[in-house]
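Moderator note: this is an archived Q&A kept for reference. The question asked for a predicted structure of one protein chain; the sequence and the answer are reproduced below.
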Amino acid sequence: MVVGSNQPYFLPYLAYWQLINHVDVYVISDSMQYIKKGYINRNNILIEGKAHRFSLEVLGVNSKSSISEVRVGNNRKKLLKSFFHSYKKAPYFEEVYPLIESIVLNEEENLGKYVGNAIEKVAAFLGISTQFIYLSTLQGETTLKTEKRTIDICKRVEAKQFINAIGGVELYSRENFLAENIELKFLKMDRVSYKQFNNEFVPCLSIIDIMMFNSKSQIEILLKKFTLV
């Protein structure tokens, strides 16, 4: 059993989906602490040839809030309007926009469930068959932190291999995972590019950008452009 896990990010960039696509089970860590100015409710789209940050409004945030304790705010329609105007001339707009509309206008107020729903809908659209589990259901309340918490997740789902994004290299020890008979790997995205109108390519944008400019078969190829280290 190959397992991956991360906080639920709102319409994140390609590497996030490469990890989801590669593993058997993906744990959506909705009970982790909400990080202000992170990617849980923000990402980037293409506007006038440049990366532009968009943010889903959130409410009820304090210094100890978990992701699922945060509520979704009131700028859904404004966000959707921005996505519409940014990509209405993109080659796959007609196919992708109804998906984005259903994600953004979801009336769920729980941020963890709202972003988790977005992840599951995009995965289904792309034909990704990975099983999703919510950390709040799997692990519940716990005093375990960082590496110990992740190892506990792996043991609960009987993982033989855990794969994390390359940014987790400083957080996890291969030796500590091996002590629990779990192999630890990190996913590093290869350099990728694709045509964005007639602009110079802008990398690492939201999955919205990738879906608007690439067919599903092209995205299937992009999902495999990574290295495990």
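Archived answer notes: The chain has a mean pLDDT of 94.
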